[in-house]
Amino acid sequence: MGRWLVLGGTRFLSQAVAAAAVARGHEVICAARGESGMPPEGARLVKVDRDTEDALAPLRGEQFDAVVDVAFISYRWVREALAELGEKAGHWTFVSTMSVYADLSRRGGGVDDPVREPRYTDPTDPEDFGAYGQIKVASEQAVMEAVGDRALVVRPGLVCGPDDEADRFGYWPARFARGGRAVVPDAPDQPCQIIDVRDLAEWIVLAGEQGITGTFDTCGPPTTLGTVLDEIATAVGAADLERVPVSPEELGAAGIMPWQGPRSLPLWLPDILWGVVDRDTAPALAAGLRCRPIAETALAALETERALGTDRERQAGLTAAEEAELLDGR
Ligand SMILES: NC(=O)c1ccc[n+]([C@@H]2O[C@H](COP(=O)([O-])OP(=O)(O)OC[C@H]3O[C@@H](n4cnc5c(N)ncnc54)[C@H](OP(=O)(O)O)[C@@H]3O)[C@@H](O)[C@H]2O)c1
What we know:
The chain has helices at 12-23, 75-85, 132-147, 171-178, 197-210, 225-236, 248-253, 282-286, 294-308, 320-327; strands spanning 3-7, 27-32, 43-47, 66-69, 92-95, 151-156, 158-160, 181-185, 191-192, 194-196, 214-218, 223-224, 242-246, 257-258, 264-265. The protein is α/β, with parallel strands linked by helices and 330 residues long. Helix 3 links the parallel strand 5 and strand 6. Helix 1 (12-23) packs across helix 5 (197-210) and helix 4 (171-178) packs across helix 6. Bound molecules: NADP nicotinamide-adenine-dinucleotide phosphate.
């Protein structure tokens, strides 16, 4: 069994990677501050704060069979980790994003699609996410330059499931489980692709074990928004749930935002962004990525929603009052 380092490991995807590696019998070290949470049982936390100088000194000289870095929006973090640990690492996974692509309207694209201009400077404001895709491009480049012969770059789309605190996918299981009349975008044929955090984590561990290298778009098989909402409704919808389709034009006129943010309908996207939810994931599937049915993701997301409190102020979705406004007269 191998020695794994997860840079992160205390929340969501990186925590799921650590858990999957522990389940496979590996020795797992998570390097994080321990502020978001704790590593899963069986993994060890080494406290590091990557915002500080010489942050990875506690890991100096260590050798790992596999390293997984989920650095969200920092080129500096990625370079420092590579400089400190890259030479001795057996395999290196960098978690990137779909947001690297220059043209997010193109459907059915793959990893050879043109990417955005790289940006090598980190934002000074931690709330500034505008350069997300460009910093990921620069980070991917740094990984390929330093450890390209051993590197796996994964570009996920929407990651969903247990412990997802982003409020996007979880809006739908929570809303459908509440029942009654629920506004849905009248866009059943819109492309849609999601990935369960557990499936992505298990594949990252498999890839590390098997030495899989290269760049992969990592989402579930392409489907439609209508199918995803049907599957969520079947899995967790209340008996009195009635879905009320509202056209994208009417939603737009009412100031409802697609995808995320307050006053939004998650998973709904304008066609200029359909490339985000219609990627060619056949190469990842051929390399062993297995995706569970959406119903299982919906059940786990609902559990997380209930643990977080379904009456909390959400980062994405409609409030009951906003929904009632839209339903008025329908
Ligand atoms: N969610 C999605 O739908 C989606 C889609 C595409 C791509 N992605 C990518 O997937 C990855 C998500 O990673 P994730 O789920 O593990 O969540 P995350 O919110 O990116 O957190 C990752 C880890 O970073 C650690 N961290 C934060 N600040 C730190 C610091 N100053 N020093 C050391 N560690 C620090 C956190 O631990 P502590 O706070 O305990 O230090 C946590 O364990 C990201 O790379 C993201 O870009 C996500």
